[in-house]
Amino acid sequence: MRLLLIFPSVPDDNEAERPGVRCRRNSDSFLCFKPNEDEVALMKLKHAENQLNLKDKFMKRKS
């Protein structure tokens, strides 16, 4: 008779900090996805661009 012990997979500290890494929790059916660094940088860039455009429109209306 075989005894099989199954422990939930716990990501190590290095794995938790890596962006875009798929980490496994308790089973393969439940996966969590972290945003990729490139996607986050692109979102921040688009947000800054939108803010700049709004400020530009506001300044043009004032003058």
UniProtKB/TrEMBL annotation:
It comes from the Eukaryota. The lineage of its organism: Eukaryota, Metazoa, Cnidaria, Anthozoa, Hexacorallia. This is Uncharacterized protein.
